[in-house]
Design brief:
The chain is an all-alpha fold. The protein is built from 14 helices and no strands. The relative contact order is 0.16.
Length: 331
């Protein structure tokens, strides 16, 4: 994967620093806008975070942009967090009530039903667009939350490892969820290269991935990372059933739908582990983190709702949801 095309002065500066240039004397962040939809902000963060995953073929592994890029990333994260607190108010919680509070958040999730549309109405091209968007995360599925493993101990650590072991296929490469997603992509005629669609997806798609990386890669936000994972698991089973049924409606075979079908059963189990053994145990040991756990969960639900609204709004208006292309892949 090569560095993506920049989207403004900030991502220009990120790339310049990775090329070894001296930092700019001043940087124009542009007009204020919702952080979740800020193309320059989200791409800049995504590039910074990706350096901690697989990096870029055209960036020397020893080149990390130095102190200037580190400082810029911290500034970008502050802006991202400011945007998140505008989207989701801080939540106070009784540590003993965390599992039930997570269940209430999941039950109250009122985001637009992207899953229903994909199940009943989406064309093959629209379903392909959805899969292209999701590839930004699913081709590294579970990796952002795995940053939390070395920061945990005891029951919470064992719970997270149990969840992640399933995500990574129990040690079998063909069962890794990222590999199952690749099969789905190929069935739709999509390029399954890691990061292939980054230039095509809008800010809100990058924001879904960046939220996980923000929480996962910053020890300060460990509780939020756990809450995000719990919300992810607790709201996953039914949508994945609908995604699978939608792909079957479009002619997808068992191999094509397996990624979604596996998540129907797996996430029904994971949601209990995540809510009680992971978040409940961590809140009992670290009661001061209860609010962060619920904040992370609420942020995950809110950003996913923004993502769904973008796709549905684009399709309702008769335009593709990707930035640079419409897909014609067939299921």
């Amino acid at each position: 994967m090569r560095l993506p095309a920049t989207r403004g002065p900030v991502s220009d500066e990120v790339v310049r620093l990775l090329r070894g240039a001296n930092p700019a004397e001043s940087l124009d962040f542009g007009p204020a806008q919702p952080a979740v939809h800020d193309e320059d902000l989200q791409l800049s963060l995504w590039i910074c975070y990706e350096l901690g995953y697989r990096g870029f073929d055209d960036v020397d592994p020893d080149q990390d942009g130095g102190l200037a890029l580190h400082a810029l990333r911290k500034d970008l994260e502050k802006r991202w967090l400011t945007g998140l607190t505008a989207l989701v108010a801080p939540i106070e919680a009784d540590p003993a009530d965390v599992p039930r509070a997570l269940a209430r958040l999941a039950a109250a999730d009122g985001g637009p039903s992207l899953a229903k549309f994909l199940q009943r109405k989406a064309s093959a091209a629209q379903f392909g667009e959805f899969v292209a968007h999701r590839s930004v995360y699913h081709l590294k599925e579970a990796d952002p939350h795995s940053w939390a493993i070395p920061r945990l101990s005891g029951r919470a650590k064992a719970a997270l490892v149990e969840i992640q072991a399933d995500e990574y296929g129990g040690g079998r490469v063909e069962e890794m969820h990222s590999e199952l997603f690749r099969t789905t992509m190929r069935s739709l005629g999509l390029d399954d290269g890691y990061g292939h669609f980054v230039d095509d997806v809008p800010a809100v798609t990058l924001a879904v991935s960046n939220l996980m990386s923000l929480f996962g890669m910053n020890r300060r936000w460990l509780g939020a990372a756990l809450g995000h994972l719990a919300a992810f698991e607790m709201t996953s089973s039914l949508p994945n059933r609908r995604y699978g049924n939608g792909l079957r409606r479009l002619g997808g075979d068992a191999a094509a739908t397996r990624f979604f079908d596996v998540h129907v059963e797996a996430d029904a189990v994971h949601e209990q582990i995540a809510a009680h053994d992971l978040c409940g145990s961590y809140a009992a040991e670290h009661p001061e983190a209860a609010g962060d756990i619920l904040f992370g969960a609420a942020c995950g639900l809110a950003v996913d709702a923004e993502f769904a609204a973008h796709l549905l709004g684009s399709w309702e208006a008769g335009r593709p949801s990707l930035r640079t292309r419409a897909l014609s892949g067939a299921a």
